[in-house]
Amino acid sequence: MKKIENFIKIIFCVVLFSACESFLADDINRDPNNPSVVTLNAVLPSIQIRHMDVYGGQTSRVNSMFAQQTEGVARQWSSFNDYSGLQPVRFNTVWDIYYEDILVEVNSMIADAQEDGYNHYAGIGQIQKAAALLDMTSWWGDIPYSTAALGIEEINPTFDAQASIYTEIFNLLGSATSLLNGSDGGFAVGGDDVIYGGNTSSWIKAANAIKARAHMHLGDYASALSAAKSSFTSRADNMSYTFGTTQQAGWWRFNDGRTGDIEFHPTLRALMTDLNDTDRLAVWDQTFITSHPYMKPNYEQAYVSYREMQFIIAECLSRTNGSSTEMEAAYLKGIEASFDETGLGNSEYSSYVSQNAVNPGGASLDLEDHILTQKYIAMFVQPEVFNDLRRNDFPNLTPTSGSQLPVRWNYSGDEALFNPNVPVGTTLFTPKNSWDN
After folding, report:
1. What pTM was computed for the model?
2. Can you tell me the distance from the alpha carbon of 301 to that of 382, in angstroms, rounded to the nearest whole number?
3. Which of 103, 138, 99, 106 has its CA nearest to residue 124?
4. What kind of architecture, by CATH, is found in domain 6-22+35-254+264-418?
């Protein structure tokens, strides 16, 4: 992976931290005699914001395009849309962000927290790390891990098998939950945690939500169901970050600088039109410009959400022949949460789900026609739609070019150029992830 000189890294961190200064107020508990305290206060928000930004930025754009919720229509994005322009070099930036700005930093943060016994910082760091690893193995499959993110100690890291990455994700989430259930070690997380403000109960719910998503990838529906039920109980629990005036959300910034490059996809438009999903369509299906009513500068970017958990519960119950009453309840809660996220009210939601095509009743709910269809709609521009597409081979999409849909991201062009351990023969179309149907 591309090696950035230390002074460049320091400059970047200074710039990024300036966007976080409101979270580093004087009333945060700092010990000037303990440098790791200052480091933890500074590094945690930078990791969180960086992750939310890349997840809701380039990651969202590529994955929603692959899943045909959006389409590239102009300039370089028109070539990305037909897959021809998505050469390995196009994935350099996201690869570098995940490794250099997230993994390297979170590893250092966890080590500092563990050294001083600050258990809650270590636990939150482990959840952030698990989330980043889940993203990376989802997009790329086998990835450098055991010998990666070590700075200059290892310049040609080996690639770990995807199965071992999932094992590490579950280990991290388990360890984090134990740490968060215990003492903070004398230094509590506070306002520097821009996601939950140091609320350990919320972080434990988030750990279960990430665990549910990971189990879904692997087809372990019983474990996914159990984890999802132990996660979020309302939208207020979402693991999310609200962007603001200092740093606008990723889609808003893109629409500001690249107006007309990406627009709403005809595939999603046709599906929603057939279901008389006119209210959400009226909000989402507008020209992608800075005044778009959904892609706002202060957009609340969720990493995992209540609506996703409800659809996971519904899908798991469907696949395991669980309670149809419980399945219907979760299914409807997922749809309702999407309407809420879109800024719509109970009247619009109630009118929509009153249709037999949307809700024929619990016993008649079909996995594809109802649960997976409504999740695909509800997760508009959320990167997880690409994972669902590959995991379920649904919706049944037509490739925009050629005869194959993308099944992965290309490895970073820089990584392929400088690291001889990069697997050979990988493209957007091969090989599939271990869980890709």
Report:
1. 0.91
2. 9
3. 106
4. Alpha Horseshoe (1.25)
375: left (phi over 0), alpha (psi -120 to 50) or beta: alpha
Query: Looking at residues 113-138, what average pLDDT do you find?
Result: 98
Task: Name the DSSP letter for residue 379.
Answer: T
What span, in angstroms and rounded, lies between the C-alpha atoms of 28 and 32?
A: 12
- Cβ(107)–Cβ(426) under 8 Å? no
Which helix (H) or strand (E) segment holds residue 169: the answer is: helix 162-180
Number of continuous H segments (helices) and E segments (strands) in the chain = 19, 6
- Convert the pLDDT of each residue in 319-331 to its tens digit: 999 999 999 999 9
Asked whether 163 and 433 are in contact (CB, 8 A), the reply is no
Residues whose CB is less than 8 angstroms from the CB of residue 133 and which lie 6 or more positions away in sequence, other chains included: 103, 143, 145, 165, 168, 169, 172
Confidence at 152, pLDDT banded by 50, 70, 90: low
Tell me, what's the pLDDT at 102? 97
Task: Compute the distance between CA of residue 331 and CA of residue 350 in angstroms, rounded to an integer.
Answer: 13
Residue 430 DSSP class:
B
Say whether pLDDT at 97 is over 70.
yes
CA distance 349 to 336: 6
